Amino acid sequence: MKKIVTGVLAFLMCASIAIAQTPASSSQDKQKAAHRAEKPGQKSQKPALDSSGRPMKKDGTPDKRFKDNQENKNEKAQGPMKKDGTPDKRFKGNKETKEAKPEGPQKKDGTPDKRFKENKEKPAADKKA
């Protein structure tokens, strides 16, 4: 009885492996490609262009999906502004930092290595009264 059950299980395992290894049919790929192709009576999905050649939406605003219309994200983000348009210095994003980076050796994280004299902060001169 054990031999019969073992034989049936071995047969089922081999059959499942054989079914799993069948190659995918390439006719399905061709059908998908034909389905994606543009139909003769179908409108193109390309947006209208303005006089400068940039894509525009129907309402006339720039289409932000395109790189031409996206604002430059490399510029430093400014914090809150005053009514006159100048940056408000009370906020961290608007403060100008004076970064006096020593030119000596640095650690892996980019901070100066304080073991070297070039990186040590110079003590303030003592005032004599």
UniProtKB/TrEMBL annotation:
It comes from Chitinophaga rhizophila. Keywords: Signal. Residues 21-129 are annotated as: Disordered. Residues 29-41, 56-129 have a biased composition (Basic and acidic residues). It comes from the Bacteria. This is Uncharacterized protein. Residues 1-20 form the signal peptide.
